[in-house]
Design goal:
The complex is a heterodimer of chains A (234) and B (330). By secondary structure, chain A is an alpha/beta fold. Chain A contains ten helices and ten strands. The two termini of chain A are 34 Å apart. Chain B has 330 residues and is mainly alpha-helical. Chain B has a domain of 211 residues. Chain B has a two-stranded antiparallel sheet with strand order 1-4. In chain B, strand 2 and strand 3 form a beta hairpin. The longest helix of chain B is centred in the C-terminal third of the chain and has 27 residues. Chain B is globular, with a radius of gyration of 21 Å. The chains are: A alpha/beta (234), B mainly alpha (330).
Chain lengths: 234, 330
């Protein structure tokens, strides 16, 4: 298993946000996490990338316990998050944003990564000298994903990549997710668009008020009545 | 055609700006009619050095400090006490003081920089006030409110004395200060700082250790202030707690904001304008501070990003408008 989470809990002050989360992500898998607003999806991703403190439980990455190590060390190990709301560096140029993605990587790795990202998102190459703030929402999402890829992720944590985008762009972003998957990138995906997320996922978990309530293959969950009722609006 | 890359380099802030600044420093003495003018120019230079450091912290890393007069004061008093009371060679006193201030900033910065926004402002304000209190009360070392006199700066047998020599020394150091700051900003660490300023979450997820970078730039800005303080002490031959006081911290922040955040040359311009303006306005006598205030308010309304970035933007948009006009004609 690439990522193993056991009994993970996290609190905001005294309020529990996650309690006793167990999940695993295998190498090359695309695992989705679906759930309503406030279920704790983002908190879980932040706990995995080391930005959110954990109150109990354990996180193992490729066999090593990483529960207590700092965010930047996790990036070095290859756990890379593409945060919710994109969080691109708006005053910096597109190219500088990408360069910063490879902050912990060598120059050669950065150059290679840049070519790969430009091949995947040609529009970023066109706009490479423009400030990231001048990009549209969809392009900023591509930039955020590109910046994540620059860090050479072994495990890519995608937080709400389709949030706030027009339907056509949502499709485009999910096409990118599929492309990354076929390129053997391991992905842990969180999205409010449960239908699209479950459709691309090998396996998925359903999170409700900080607990995992269901899990199964993406196809299984798409057929599950509870899921259909609660998240797919059927 | 061959000249194009060279022209482009000349127009870049690093090369072109530095050359322009060097030219101003070299030609300015033509306009400096007497030692009073030189004195003001030296004050501008010393303030500019502090502001360049402070701008790295405020403008680039996005962290406020209302206590930088404290670091300036520590530099001034450190040099004064070591060189004048204990007879250290001024160079050694300056180096030892700078090192001590860097260590202090490192130790104090770690807990303080965990705070954000108003809380960080409060904490740095508190730091500045503590330094001020210590300097005014420990009169055995510092001379208390009366201040302390400082021996002239000497390197070997050469004594730095008189406004003319100090003008060139401060001018050269100002160029070095600008050059170092520009290099820092263009380095990967500088890019990381700007990233941090624009999105701390974004910076964390690409593996930038935010706490470490903030601390680094805090220490650098404290060192800039301390070195300027040491030199100011030797230059004027006398230090009083006034330079350590809260008001001086505010003046420094004002210079940085006035000149333009995240613009190294803005920090220099801000220091130059706000240091000379009170001298120019002396003719208004009783109304001096009123006119000063009006100039500040007017500038911030009409040039909201500060003098240098706002004017640069205006110039750029004019030029691209002119270029568009030309394109239409052809």
């Amino acid at each position: 298993m690439m990522l193993e989470v056991e009994g993970l809990s996290s609190h905001y002050g005294r309020i529990p946000a996650l309690s006793g989360i167990d999940l695993r992500v295998g190498e090359g898998e695309l695992v989705a996490l679906v759930g309503a607003n406030g279920a704790g999806k983002t908190t879980l991703l932040r706990a995995l990338s080391g930005v959110q403190p954990v109150s109990s439980g354990r996180v193992r990455f490729e066999g090593a316990d990483i529960t207590a190590i700092a965010a930047d060390k996790r990036v070095r190990l290859g756990i890379v998050q593409v945060p919710e709301g994109r969080q691109v560096f708006t005053p910096l140029s597109v190219e500088d944003n990408l360069r910063l993605g490879a902050y912990l990587r060598s120059k050669a790795e950065a150059a290679q990564g840049m070519e790969r990202v430009y091949a995947m998102f040609p529009v970023l190459k066109q706009k490479r000298r423009e400030p990231a703030g001048a990009l549209s929402g969809g392009q900023q999402q591509m930039l955020a994903m590109g910046r994540g890829l620059m860090a050479l992720p072994r495990l890519l944590l995608l937080d709400e990549p389709s949030m706030g985008l027009a339907p056509k762009l949502v499709e485009e972003i999910f096409a990118c997710v599929r492309a990354l998957k076929s390129a053997k990138t391991t992905i842990f995906l969180v999205d409010q668009n449960a239908r699209a997320a479950l459709a691309v996922a090998d396996r998925a978990y359903v999170l409700e008020t900080g607990r995992i309530v269901l899990s199964g293959s993406g196809a299984e969950l798409l057929q599950n009545e509870q899921v259909q009722e609660a998240y797919l609006g059927l | 055609m061959l000249a194009r890359p060279m022209l482009q380099r000349l127009a870049s802030p690093r090369t072109g700006g530095l050359l322009a600044l060097a030219a101003v420093i070299a030609l300015l003495p033509l306009a400096l009619r007497n030692s009073y003018f030189y004195d003001v120019a030296i004050l501008v230079g010393l303030n500019a050095i502090v502001c360049i450091g402070l701008n790295l912290l405020i403008g680039y890393a996005g962290q406020i400090s209302l206590g930088h007069a404290g670091f300036f004061g520590l530099g001034a008093y450190g040099s004064a006490i070591l060189a004048s009371r204990y007879g250290w060679p001024p160079t050694a006193a300056l180096l030892a003081t700078t090192l001590a201030v860097a260590v202090l900033a490192f130790i104090v910065g770690r807990p303080i920089l965990r705070l954000r926004g108003h809380y960080l402002a409060m904490a740095t304000l508190g730091l500045g006030i503590i330094i001020f209190m210590i300097i005014t009360t420990e009169d055995k070392f510092t001379g208390g409110p009366d201040g302390i006199s400082v021996v002239p700066f000497r390197i070997g047998g050469f004594v730095l004395q008189g406004e003319h020599i100090w003008y060139w020394v401060v001018g050269a150091l100002l160029l070095v200060a600008v050059w170092l700051a520009l290099n820092l900003i263009e380095s990967p660490a500088g890019r990381a700082l700007r990233a941090l300023h624009s999105s701390e979450v974004g910076a964390e997820v690409v593996g930038i250790n935010a706490a470490e970078h903030k601390l680094m730039v805090f220490v650098i800005s404290a060192v800039y202030a301390s070195v300027a303080g040491s030199l100011a002490a030797h230059y004027s031959g006398f230090v009083t707690p006034g330079k350590v006081a809260f008001l001086h911290s505010i003046e420094l922040v004002t210079m940085v904001v006035f000149g333009g955040l995240a613009s190294t040359f803005g920090a220099v311009v801000g220091a130059a304008v706000l240091t000379t303006l009170p001298q120019l306005l002396a003719t208004f006598e009783d109304y001096e501070m009123m006119v000063f205030g009006a100039v500040m308010i007017g500038t911030m309304i009409f040039l909201p990003r500060g003098v240098v970035p706002s004017l640069a933007r205006l110039f750029k948009s004019r030029r691209s408008a002119a270029a568009d006009g030309n394109a239409e004609k052809t």
